[in-house]
Amino acid sequence: MNARWRTFAIAFAWLLVVLLVVGGLVWQRTYERVSSQERVTLAHGLALHAAELRDTDFDAARKLGTAAVGIHSDEQTRAGLVDTLVDTYGRALSPLIQEPSHEVTVSGDGRVALSNDGGEANVWDLKSWTDPKAIRKPDQVPPLKGREGASVNTTALSFDGRTALTGDDGNTTTVWDLTDLAKPVRLATMEADRTAQSTNGVKKAALSRDGRTAVIVDHDGVMTVWDLADRSHPKRLSATGSDTVPIRDFALSADGRTVVAVDDHNKVAVWDASAAEHPVKAADLDLSMKFSQNGTRTAMSADGHVVLVQRAGQIEIWNLNDRARPVRHTTLDLSFDKLYGTYDMSLTSDGKRVLVAGPSGSGTLWDLSDPAKPARLATLNGHMPEVESVALGTDGHLALMAGSSGVYFWNLTGLDEIVADPKQASCDRYSAEISKAEWARYAGGADWSEYKSEDSDSVSVCLIDWWS
Known about the structure:
- The longest helix is centred in the N-terminal third of the chain and has 52 residues, at 2-53.
- A hairpin with a 5-residue loop joins β18 and β19 (306-311).
- By secondary structure, this protein is α+β, with helices and mostly antiparallel strands.
- The strands form eight sheets. It has a four-stranded antiparallel beta sheet, with no helix packed on it.
- It has two domains: 2-86 and 422-467, no CATH class; 92-411, YVTN repeat-like/Quinoprotein amine dehydrogenase (Methylamine Dehydrogenase, Chain H), CATH 2.130.10.10.
- 23% of the residues lie in helices and 35% in strands.
C-alpha cells in the first residue's frame, strides 16, 4: 500500500511539474505577446505624432520617428521616418514664385526647368541648386512668352535643355533656343493644322531626346508630328486623329518612334511613329480599370518599353517590348495615399521610378525596378493644397512639384540610403534624446524605464533598441 501511494505521489509531483512548466510557458508567451503588442502600439503612436509634427517641428518629428523605428521596426514606422527625413530636402524653388504654377518640366540632364503659370513660362537654371560647387547666380532667367501676347498652355524640353517648346492658347507652338539661358532666342513658330477649329490652343507638346522630333496635340485632339532637324525651319510631317475621337493626353518615347495616346473617351492606343509621315496605330490597351469621369493620363520610359496608365487612383503598368502586343504587369492602387484623382505623374527615363501627385497636396515616389511588384519609396510633401504637375530628373534624384503655392524642389541623392535604413540615416546625421516630459506627452503612459539606461534621465533615440 505504501508503495502504491509512493508511486501515486511521484506521478502527481511530475504532473504538477509539467503543469507548472506548461503554465509558465503559456504565461511567458502571453506576456511576450502582450508586451510585443504594447511595443507595436507605442511605436505606431509615436510615428503618428511624428507625422503630425512634420510640418511644424522637424526636430521633434525626427526624434519621435527614430524612436518608433527603434521600438518596433515595420513598414509603417519605417515609412513614417523616411517621409520625415525626405521632407527636409524639399524647398521652394525661389521666393519669387509663390503664385500658382500649373505645370513644371525638367530637362533630362537636370540643368533646366520650366514652370508655367498660365501666362508665360518661367525658365530656371538648376545648376546652382544641384551642384554645391557652382557659383551662386540668379535662378530665374527671362520668361518665355506666347506668340503676340498669347498665354502659354504647355511646355516641353529636350534632354539637354537647349531646345524648348511653348504651346499657347493661340494654337501656336514656339521653338526656343536655350543654349544661353540668360538670353532665350525665339527660333520659329509652328502653326496648328489649318483644319483645326480650336479656340483653346495647344494642349500638350513633347520632344524626342535629341530634340529633332516634336509631337503636339491641340485642344481639338489633333496630333501633329514635326521635324526639327533645322530648328529655325520646322517641317510638319503629319497630322493625325484617333479614329475621329480627339486625343487628350500622350507620352512620347525618347527616339520619337512610339506614342501612347489617350483619347476623349479615355481609351488608350499605342502608335507606331517610326514613319513620322504616316503614324500607324499598333494596338489598343485593354484596361482593367473601370471607367471614370476623371481624366486618364499616361507616362512612358525613354526606351518606350514601360508605359503607365493612370485613372481614378489606379495605375496600370504595361510592357511594350512588342508594340503590337502590349502586356499588363500589374495595377497599382493609390487610393490609400488619397490620390483618388491623380493630376500628374512623371516616370524616370529608365522606367524604374515614378512620382505621382494630385489633390492630396503631396506626391508619392514608387520603385518600379520590378514592375510586377511596385514598392513605395517616400512621400514628398508638396506644402500646398493641391499639386497639379510633377517632374523627375533622369536618375530620379531630382524632383519638382508645382501647384497652388508655387514650385518646390527636391535633391534626392540621399534617398536610397534613407530608404535602406532610415534609423541609421537619421542617427548618422543627428543625435537626440527624449526628455521625461516629452515621453509623458507623446508615449501615452508607457513605462519609459524599459527604453533607457538606468542612470539616464532621458531616452536616447539612437540607442533605444539597446536598452529595450
